[in-house]
Structure formats: C-alpha cells, structure tokens
Write a structure and sequence with these properties.
about 300 residues, alpha+beta, Formiminotransferase-cyclodeaminase, Chain B, domain 1, Alpha-Beta Plaits, seven-stranded mixed sheet, four-stranded antiparallel sheet, 8 helices, about 25% strand, globular
Length: about 300
C-alpha cells in the first residue's frame, strides 16, 4: 500500500456505559477484531456512566468497526435502566467521523449516511444525522438533536419535527436512538470545582457557552460528580483554533472566584491534538517565537 496515499478516518463513538468493565470490554472487542483498524483510546467515566472509544483506519474498516460496536452495545446496554450525568439518547449515543489524512469532509458525510442507514435497517434503531452530515440546520448541533434526552425523546420522536433521518419513528425498546455525523476535531474538556453546589457550575457554563453569549465554538454544561461530591463544568471545544483551551480555563477560574470557589483540576477526555497543548504551554510559559519544530518528538 502507498502509505502517502493512505486514507485515514478517525471515529470517536460514545457509549452509555462507564461502570461495567465487562460490557466496555465486549464493545471494544468489536472494534479491535476488524482488520485495518487501530484502537487509540478507551476512556470510561463512572459519574457520566459513559465511555469514549477512539479508533482510526481506512474509511470502510472504520465504518464496519463502528457498526459492530453499535450492534454489541444494543445487546448489552438497556437504556431503561441507564442513569448518568451526561446527556444521552441511546446505548450508542453518538458516532462522529473525523477526516485525518487524504479524506475530505464530504467523504466523512457519506460514511455517516451509509452507517446511519445500516444501523436503522439492520438493528432497527432510529438514527439522527448531525454536524456536517445534518439534513437540516436545526439538527446541526448535537445538543439540539439530544434535546429532552432519552426519556424525553421517547415521547417526542413521533412528532414530525423529531422523526429520525433513518429508521422508525419510535425508540428501540432497549437501545434507544443513535446520532451519527461528521465533524472536525473536538476536544472534550472538563474543569472540576471545589464545591458540591452544581448550580455554580451551571452558572459558569452559561458564562462560557456560545449559545449564551460566551465563547464561539464552546458548548458547556454544569454537572455533579456524585462519586467525588464535586461540581464540574463539562465542555466540548468544537474548534480549539478559534477558542483555545487556556482562554476557557482562565475564564472558568475567574468566574469561579466570584462564588468563592476554586478550580481543583481539569481533564481531557480521549485524545487531543498536540497543537492544542502547545498553545496552552506557549500562553502560560510566555514563550517568545516558539515553533512546533522545537518539540523533540516532532523531529524523530
């Protein structure tokens, strides 16, 4: 194979299970058994009761791995029993395709359409398309598609405006619904606060999220981490080049001080581009004329 011409797509499905390791392992096994697919990361979160799986490869093997994992999740996860802090509408909540190398966004949109139709036909799970694959502007943003979450969508899905793009206008009895799409690289970034008052986290989230007049490319919500008894500002950075991590971190820290609260830590869920971290290092270290080529690992 001509490595220079190799097409690489990233897929980052989110599954509604972050506590039962045996279920997570079974889902991940459906990814790793597909030839030509490389598993890059598995990040479970018990409080969110959710796991983020990251893998890459040629487009068709990646699509097959995503379908296999979705099918296994539909067997092992019962949304009627699921509880967690993170918004979700199904056992396989969301499956995004991200172009990495020699692949266009249009090709990722085609993958999303093919996978969505396959999930609907073979698994009888209603599928919604989002971001670049969205059929209408109203479904471009993931929060809009997930409005009402699993419990709400059960009652809303029969309404014409909530009909899925593929599959029946009714929830799968245990697997719920699934969102499939194509997008640019997203950084899932959480900031933890020294308080158990989730209302403070929600106020801070509103201060930084784009739809409330905050930073462009930032989606955020306040959640409670029951296992740690702390509040968290859970953030999706949909374009770190437009709004960098350090700017959001500093704003959350500043807003928290208004309520007498400190930031006690932050975390990145899944993988992140090196450049996003270099931008933060350049900001905090006050680096002058820094170039990515100065990173040792970039030269070997």
């Amino acid at each position: 194979m001509d490595i220079a011409a190799e097409k690489i797509v990233e897929c980052v499905p989110n599954f509604s299970e972050g506590r039962r390791q045996e279920v997570i392992d079974s889902i991940v096994a459906e990814v790793t058994k597909v030839a030509g697919v490389t598993l890059l990361g598995v990040k479970p979160d018990a409080s969110h009761n959710r796991v983020v799986v990251t893998f890459v490869g040629e487009p068709q093997p990646v699509k097959q791995a995503a379908f296999n994992a979705c099918a296994k999740a539909s067997e092992l996860i019962d949304m009627e029993q699921h509880k967690g802090e993170h918004p979700r509408i199904g056992a396989t909540d969301v499956i995004p395709f991200i172009p990495v190398k020699n692949v266009t966004m249009e090709e990722c949109v085609q993958l999303a359409n093919e996978l969505g139709e396959e999930i609907a036909q073979k698994l009888n799970i209603p599928v919604y398309l989002y971001e670049e694959a969205a059929k209408t502007p109203a479904r471009k943003r993931l929060p809009d598609v997930r409005k009402g979450e699993y419990e709400g969508l059960k009652h809303e899905i029969t309404k014409p405006e909530r009909h899925p793009d593929f599959g029946p206008a009714k929830m799968h009895p245990t697997a719920g619904a699934t969102v499939v799409g194509a997008r640019q690289f997203l950084i899932a970034y959480n900031i933890n606060l020294s308080t158990s008052d989730v209302s403070i986290a929600k106020k801070i989230a509103n201060a930084i999220r784009e739809v409330k007049g905050g930073y462009k490319y930032v989606r955020a919500m306040g959640v409670m981490l029951e296992d740690r008894n702390i509040a968290q500002v859970s953030i999706n950075m949909v374009d770190y080049t437009g709004t960098p991590l350090h700017r959001v971190f500093e704003t959350v820290k500043f807003e928290a001080e208004r309520y007498g609260v400190n930031v006690i830590g932050s975390e990145i869920i899944g993988l992140t581009p090196l450049q996003a971290l270099l931008d933060a290092a350049e900001y905090y270290l006050r680096l002058e004329n820094f170039d990515r080529k100065q990173v040792f690992e970039e030269n070997i």
